[in-house]
Amino acid sequence: APTEAGEHLLAHLDPAFEDIAAALDSLNRFRETPHGLVRINAPRNAIGLVLAPRFGELARDYPGITLEVVADEGFANIVEAGFDAGIRLGEDLQHGMRAVRVGPDLRLAIVATPADFRRQGRPGSPA
Fold first, then answer.
1. N or C: which end of the chain has fewer CB within 10 A?
2. Residue 102's closest CA among 86, 126, 82?
């Protein structure tokens, strides 16, 4: 059995322990549902083809997520620039990065008038 001093201390600490337990329980929402800011870097055409069709689904399924999408036609280092992810078309991948397919294979086509082909010649591949 606790001493009188122990009983006194416990009486004063018990509410604090209950507050701590309640605060820890309130953190469970952070484990159960994703939330916060997610920053994605992608070329404009990837935003239109891959991301935009999924915006509604993402907002519905993960209301706690705030998505920041930055259009970038360059090849920025997504980590140094503070992004969580980046979308790249093709197989270009910076050293140390991992790739996950997020869309279908895309085919590029060269489109021009016959007069343009006569004037410029036929390109060997899309630029």
1. N
2. 86
